[in-house]
Amino acid sequence: MLSPLRFEPAYAQPALPVAAASVIRYAAGEEIFAEGDRADHVYELVEGTVRTGRLLRDGRRQIDAFHFAGEAFGFEAGDLRRTTAEAVGEVTVRIVRRRALSDLAARDGEVARKLYHLTISGLQRSQDHVLMLGRRSACERVAGLLLLLADRTGEAAFDLPMSRQDMADYLGLTIETVSRTLTGFLQEGLIALPTVRHVELLDREALEALCE
Amino acid sequence: MLSPLRFEPAYAQPALPVAAASVIRYAAGEEIFAEGDRADHVYELVEGTVRTGRLLRDGRRQIDAFHFAGEAFGFEAGDLRRTTAEAVGEVTVRIVRRRALSDLAARDGEVARKLYHLTISGLQRSQDHVLMLGRRSACERVAGLLLLLADRTGEAAFDLPMSRQDMADYLGLTIETVSRTLTGFLQEGLIALPTVRHVELLDREALEALCE
DNA sequence: CGAAGGTTTGACCAACCTCAATGCTGGTGG
DNA sequence: CCACCAGCATTGAGGTTGGTCAAACCTTCG
């Protein structure tokens, strides 16, 4: 459904074409940056999964995107962060100074072109997300997320990197609805759930049909 | 709530810095481009309002964004359109060859920087939209749209350029819910609705409070 | 004046949410 | 090694929001 946001395949050389960069590890759940922070760096995800999203005052949370190994994240239009990024499980990132990258882009048109392409792909992913949240049922949303995760690895069986709460906050649902929908799929034979964090797609056709 | 997506204030010179461009008018409801078309041009909206969005096979529609005078639209990552653009009322646009613009961006770093900034602003608008659709109630969504439209002109009283159906398809609601929500606001004294296409915000505070 | 298209309103319904209880799993310490 | 605990996940019952279907109500336009 959604194509991954990356310059190159994940196994290729670093996505962000800047040499001077430090590598940092974050523990599960740790905050990488928060809404309101100065946006002085951009990130390339070496290993693990990152969620970016926003929090309303009353505690409602919306996850904008999950980012996977090989993808870049943390781009902002202004000086301040509008979203929060957190590690989903253990995470390794390369950190690049935003200034260094924009200087490089100013000198090297090819870098600028890639950066442009990167953000426009992010925009298209966000538009897919809008369609999902605006016009799809709970079943369709959950099926969409499972297919998104499957396409990432190319395998029909895969580990879920995130909790039910993360899935719910990405899909605009509650944790209970996600859970009920998954057991529904299970009972219909569309998926297997050998453990709570491992999924196998048994009937990909049917899941795809749910996404139109 | 959402800052307009534009290079310059609407009254300034053309947003897209390319001279060779034709100007075209579209009648109300007319299609400017459609999902699946080749994406050979980008557009600058001279006058009127444009909606961009997607259609599911079963007829469900989701509007991604409304574009207003001074804004640019029609950027794509790939060769083909993923969204459809239609005139909301009478519309005048400048059309620029995508190729001409990318050539210019390759030569002129400042142009490239502006294009980048333009798309990243679009991404942030889309993320606001995601938050709206994922975690806000019907009241909050309608209030958000009214404030968005008010901020565009800077006036508390303004014409609604779009139909109830367009509002519903942007907000992920039905036309009936939009209508009921507006009459709710009316009865609470939050807005006046002298005609079906004209709104006055009487209690901006209260509407903003609904948006957190 | 009549027709057409958009809008509003009403009654009813379904999907999803809320709240609460129960179940599972993985880690820790006796 | 096992018992216990904490934290997620699942399940259930019942409530709410927003959707559906249908009718009435403008406006605008011929």
Structure report:
The structure is a homodimer of 212-residue chains. With 212 residues, chain A is α+β, with helices and mostly antiparallel strands. The first copy, chain A, folds into 2 domains: 22-133, Sandwich (Jelly Rolls); 137-210, Arc Repressor Mutant, subunit A. The first copy, chain A, is 38% helix and 27% strand. Chain A is built from 6 helices and 9 strands. In chain A, strands 1, 2, 3, 4, 5 and 6 form a 6-stranded antiparallel β-sheet that branches. Chain A has a 3-stranded antiparallel β-sheet with strand order 7-9-8. In chain A, helix 1 crosses helix 2 (109-135), helix 3 (138-153) packs across helix 6 and helix 4 (164-171) packs across helix 5 (175-187). The longest helix of chain A has 27 residues, at 109-135. Chains A and B meet through strand 4, helix 1 and helix 2 of A and strand 4, helix 1 and helix 2 of B. Chain A binds a DNA duplex (30 and 30 nucleotides) through residues 137-138, 163-165, 173-177, 179-180, 182-183, 195-196.
Task: Provide a quick synopsis of the model.
Chain A is an alpha+beta fold and 212 residues long. Helices cover 38% and strands 27% of the residues of chain A.
The domain tally of chain A reads 2
What is the helix tally of chain A? Answer: 6
Level-1 CATH class name of the largest domain in chain A: Mainly Beta
Could you say which structural class the secondary elements and strand pairing of chain A correspond to? alpha+beta
Uncertain ranges of chain A: 1-13
- Rg of chain A over CA atoms, rounded to whole Å, is 18 Å
Which architecture of the largest domain in chain A would the CATH scheme give at its second level? Sandwich
Taking the sheet with the most strands of chain A, its summary is:
6 strands, antiparallel
| Total strand segments of chain A | 9
Beta content of chain A comes to 25-35%
User: Residue share in helices of chain A?
Assistant: 25-40%
Q: What distance lies between the first and last C-alpha atoms of chain A, to the nearest angstrom?
A: 10 Å
| CATH homologous superfamily classification of the largest domain in chain A | Jelly Rolls
Oligomeric form of this entry? homodimer
Topology of chain A as a string of helices (H) and strands (E) = EEEEEEHHHEHHEEH
CATH topology of the largest domain in chain A: Jelly Rolls
Shape of chain A: elongated
Q: Could you report the average pLDDT of chain A, rounded to the nearest whole number?
A: 91
Largest inter-chain contact set: A-B, 41 and 41 residues
